[in-house]
Amino acid sequence: MKKVFFILGLGLSLFTQAQNTLHQVLILNEGNYDYTNNVQIEPVTIGSYNPITQTYTTVNTLPGMRFASDLIIDGNYYYVAADTKIFKIDLNTHQEIASVVCPGVRNLGIYQNMILATRGEYLTTYDSYLQVFNSNTLQFIASIDTLNGPKWATQNIVIEGTTAYIAVNNGYEWGNEKGLVGLLDLNTLTYGNEIDLGPDGKNPDNLLLSNGALYTVNNKDWSGASVSKITLGNSTATTSNIAFASTGCGTSALKGNNLVYQISMDNVLQEFDVNGMTNVGPIVGFNRNFYELAEEPISGHLYASETDFFSYGKVFIYDAGNNESNSFLCGTSPGSIVFDVRPSNSIQEQSFTFGVFPNPSSEIITINSNMPIEQVEIKDASGRLMVQSTEMEINVSFLAKGTYSIQVNNTSVQHFVKL
Q1: In which region does residue 94 sit, left (phi positive, over 0), alpha (psi from -120 to 50) or beta (all else)?
Q2: Which has the closest alpha carbon to 48: 57, 40, 37, 61?
Q3: d(CA 65, CA 29)
Q4: Is the domain covering 5-343 a CATH 2.130.10.10 domain?
Q5: Does a cis peptide bond (omega within 30 degrees of 0) precede residue 297?
Q6: What is the 3-class SS of 255-291, one letter each residue?
Q7: What pLDDT is recorded for position 248?
Q8: Residues ≥6 apart with Cβ < 8 Å to 121
Q9: Which residues, in sequence order, are bridge partners of residue 82?
Q10: What's the rounded Cα separation, in Å, for the pair 152 and 125?
Q11: How far is residue 139 from each of residues 113, 114, 116, 191, 263, measured CA to CA in Å?
């Protein structure tokens, strides 16, 4: 149950004439937690993909978090919802700025200086499924309790104007799923009307905004799927069934003017006409079972993740013609793909990132970076300096087999394995 989200890394008021560029793509890897034995198999990690150098780097790990569910960018920071906490992290250095406890946090939304957090947990009842925090300090502001707010578990958030639209699905109580979209007045923090999606609109898993209308992708009772449409300012919903199986866990996104989605365990990507509220059919060129989908707003390329949920994660990039243009390995269960878009003439300092290829290697390694390489140092496990260079390609054939650390420009450090 995820949300695809992108936002400008900087305010555009100072750069109204600037051309926007894709600075980086943040990947939130949900990891793998063994609930039977209470063991973390793969940690929750955050990775950064550089579209210029086409390199992926793990930039942060969130220890102690069993899973993660959302990531959003606002200004110079990004916020992560993970298990029992909300984290505020610097967008360039990826250093944690602050965190706050919020058990069962699922998705996040931001309005001015407020962070909205939806909540839900399997076999857990809360007295509030919607909480508000200060985005600067993460200090608690308000709790919209079940008497005055949503009475069941909540999921996605869309903010339009001064209203937050909240998907209420109760998706963790099997057989009692709900299909509601609640409205929160952001000026007064008053929870008002709830829009009923109807009997075929239960369990909204994704909430999307397009051309003045809200769309939900619903998993019903996990035995079927539908799409609901709410025209903003209207209190009624139109729902169309799309399949006799669920769409899995959030495998849907807007692409161009239509919705793309995939049925759980399938390897065909489907297209849905949101204006006519009808299925278009399969899209040629896709033959994998995806976990997350996201359209990159500059080029229109589609980023799609694949995972086995316990040890592996990979993101594929498809161009406008649905041709695979690139791919990269990432962490386990890449569940949020977020685009950091900035003005091309931004004066904000960029973070240095690099990648090592191939890894492992027996002879030659190549270092790709987003900035000029001034110095490369390779050290063995004991910290002994083995190589010092200024080149992108380095011969490592003389090194003994093992794991080595690579430091570039006296900043970032990564590891590679010598075969």
Answers
A1: left
A2: 57
A3: 12
A4: yes
A5: no
A6: ECCEEEECCCCCCCCEEEECCCCEEEEECCCCCCCCC
A7: 67
A8: 103, 104, 153, 172
A9: 85
A10: 8
A11: 11, 10, 12, 21, 40
pLDDT mean for each 10 residues of the chain (419 residues): 44 51 96 95 95 92 96 97 97 93 98 97 95 97 97 97 97 93 97 95 94 94 92 92 81 92 91 94 92 95 96 95 94 97 65 77 83 84 88 90 86 81
The rounded distance, in Å, linking the Cα atoms of 408 and 372 is 10
Q: Give CA separation, 185 vs 111, 143, 150, 188, 193, in Å.
A: 11, 14, 13, 6, 10
CA distance 244 to 242: 7
Going through 77-198 in order, the beta strands assigned E by DSSP cover: 77-82, 85-90, 96-101, 105-111, 114-119, 128-134, 140-145, 154-160, 163-168, 180-185, 190-196
For residue 92, what are the CA distances in angstroms to 9, 278, 368? 10, 42, 18
What topology is assigned to 354-418 in CATH? Immunoglobulin-like (2.60.40)
Question: What are the respective helix, strand and coil percentages of the chain, to the nearest 5?
Answer: 0, 55, 45
Look at the alpha carbons of 88, 31, 169, 144 in this order and tell me if their dihedral is positive or negative.
negative
Domain with CATH 2.60.40.3080 in the chain: 354-418
Per-residue confidence (pLDDT) for residue 56, from 0 to 100: 94
Specify the pairing of strand 105-111 against strand 44-50.
unpaired
Asked, as a colleague might, if the bond just before 360 is cis with ω within 30 of 0, I would say: yes
As annotated, the residues of the chain forming the CATH 2.130.10.10 domain(s) are 5-343
Tokens of 192: 């008002």
Listed residue (24, 29, 3, 1) closest to 330, CA to CA: 29
Q: Are 206 and 261 in contact (CB under 8 A)?
A: no
- Classify residue 361 by its DSSP letter: B
Q: What is the C-alpha R_g of the chain?
A: 22
Residue entry with tokens 């075929």: 200
* 216 vs 201: CA distance, rounded Å: 8
